[in-house]
Amino acid sequence: MQGFTPDSLPGERSRRFETDPHEPQLGSLPTGDRDESAVNETGTTTIGIATTDGVVIATDKRASLGGRFVSNKNVQKVEQIHPTAALTLVGSVGGAQSFIRTLRAEVNLYEARRGEKMSMQALSTLAGNFARGGPFLAIRPILGGVDEAGSHVYSIDPAGGVMEDDYTVTGSGMTVAYGTLEDRYEEDMSMEESREVAVAGVTAAAERDAASGNGIFIAEVTADDVEISGHDFDEFDA
Known about the structure:
Blueprint: H1 8-16, E1 40-41, E2 45-50, E3 55-60, E4 63-65, E5 69-72, E6 78-82, E7 85-88, H2 93-114, H3 120-133, E8 142-147, E9 150-156, E10 162-165, E11 167-171, H4 174-184, H5 191-208, E12 216-221, E13 226-231
Antiparallel strand pairs: 1-4, 2-3, 2-11, 3-12, 4-5, 6-7, 7-8, 8-9, 9-10, 12-13
Helix pairs in contact: 4-5
């Protein structure tokens, strides 16, 4: 064979086993710098509030290109991922959608294998592990749900940190929304009162944050199910 030398064979063989043959073949991830100015981002304002009876999550509807151009005016930024839990989309649309699909699949597998619902503690830990180790671009979701221990709201950062609180806000409009919540939030609010406070927070953020707007999606999570509905801002009293 032309160009063949006896010493080349060991090298060829060693390169065949540079990766563990038992690992899943996931393909290659992007390397190097990327121009993310054309990446669809939710920008967004998302709010989660835990109550005695359940969890209220509110988000705006706008997606943008780099926060400068509105690419979609009707994005549902909260999705059911569990019989009694929902997760918001924050950051890059593709990364958030992939994160939700992956997490939902793992929840279904867990419950099929064990024959029981996944607890919110287990679900939040799983979400944090995926955020830290998965190929998900720029996500910072809110996870809200109900289990036997009660109602829970978590914020999950891109490094996999999981923090539980009575209420939390993420997204580009969070500074304005947090101010509204700090002023209006009270302990032991009902679901209806929490809904009003969450709507006020998203509405206030949409007034000042260019990446938030075009209406509100509201998820109401109880021990029975998850109900998600879309609304225009003018449906709510000022």
